[in-house]
Specification:
Layout (H helix, E strand, L loop, with lengths): L4 E4 L3 E7 L3 H6 L15 E6 L5 E10 L2 E7 H15 L5 E4 L4 E6 L1 H5 L11 E4 L2 E5 L8 E6 L3 H7 L3 E2 L2 H10 L37 H9 L6 E10 L6 E4 L2 E8 L5 E4 L12 E2 L3 E5 L8
Parallel strand pairs: 1-11
Antiparallel strand pairs: 1-7, 2-5, 2-6, 3-4, 4-5, 7-10, 8-9, 9-10, 12-15, 12-17, 13-14, 14-15, 16-17
């Protein structure tokens, strides 16, 4: 990322969860330990189905007496309803503040130039009254600022940042193996752990129970993880959602996101998988990109 650029993520939404029972409420639902979310540390997490399948992902930021949930705007309404469904009699209030707050992201290098900044993923400080934090997934994704819309451009001017094309950020995220958008296309199609959530710091295997914990732990402990979500690059042709990917007529994966920033669920341990090879679908030739932070 260019140190002078900032990307206004108008495709993101902000939910705010607060109330007497908020901490216990979230702890019983999400895949990350809510106790690790503090004024100085933000976390990436997910809400899975009871079977451990992907439903929603978000970044959690401590704010005043509650927590911001930074999520994809296309998922915000469903996530809002799902959280309210689980609320029951808990003393919790859930608000959609997307019309008031906006998310902006800028480079890791720029973040380190801020007073008291630290290069640890998730490290959080205040810029005025607003939280700014290093992306808890991968620090290469830079920092995120959650700020009231009315203060946004004045703050960016003070930070000497220039508004840049959001597609640059999407492309950067995709190249680094992070899904930038279209998360709804993944719902119930793969297990949360297959989304690389262990490597992206979204799963805490030492916390207590949460929704989907049983299957997530079983896949981990029994070493059953044989498929992963990888970005794909089209060489030529057109992709279609849910179609199979082949090499030498052997199925190696399935397209899940077929948009401008495509992803597929890949049998990455299969002896026929070789990231240096070209792969095919019915109408396309493509490369599968294995992120360098995947060790196996």
């Amino acid at each position: 990322m260019n140190i002078k650029n900032v990307y206004i993520l108008d495709d993101r939404a902000i939910l705010y969860v607060s109330g007497q029972d908020t901490k216990d409420f979230l702890q019983n639902l999400i895949s990350k330990d809510i106790n690790k979310v503090t004024e100085k540390n933000s976390c990436f997490s997910s809400l899975l189905s009871p079977q451990g399948k992907f439903l929603y992902e978000f970044i959690i930021i401590k704010h005043k007496s509650g927590y911001f949930l930074d999520c994809e705007k296309a998922q915000a309404d469903q996530l809002f309803k799902q959280l309210n469904m689980y609320k029951l009699r808990s003393k919790v209030e859930i608000l959609d503040l997307s019309n008031e707050f906006v998310v902006a992201t800028f480079s890791y290098t720029k973040f380190l130039s801020l007073e008291n900044a630290n290069g640890i993923e998730g490290f959080t400080l205040k810029y005025g009254e607003d939280p700014v934090f290093l992306d808890p997934r991968k620090k290469e994704l830079g920092a995120r600022l959650i700020i009231n819309l009315e203060k946004l451009y004045l703050s960016l001017k003070k930070l000497n940042l220039n508004d840049a094309n959001i597609k640059e950020y999407y492309t950067f995220s995709h190249r680094h193996g992070i899904v930038p958008k279209d998360l709804n296309k993944l719902q119930n199609k793969l297990f949360g752990i297959e989304c690389n959530y262990e490597e992206l710091n979204a799963i805490d295997f030492k916390k207590g129970c949460y929704v989907g914990q049983e299957n997530t732990a079983r896949i981990k402990l029994k070493n059953k993880l044989s498929k992963r979500l990888f970005p794909i690059k089209i060489i030529k042709g057109k992709l279609y959602k849910d179609e199979s990917i082949f090499i030498n007529k052997i199925e190696i994966g399935k397209v899940l996101i077929d948009s401008e920033y495509p992803f597929a669920l890949i049998k990455y341990l299969d002896k026929n998988f070789d990231e240096k090879k070209n792969f095919q679908t019915k109408e396309a030739s493509l490369n599968i990109i294995k992120p360098d932070w995947i060790n196996k």
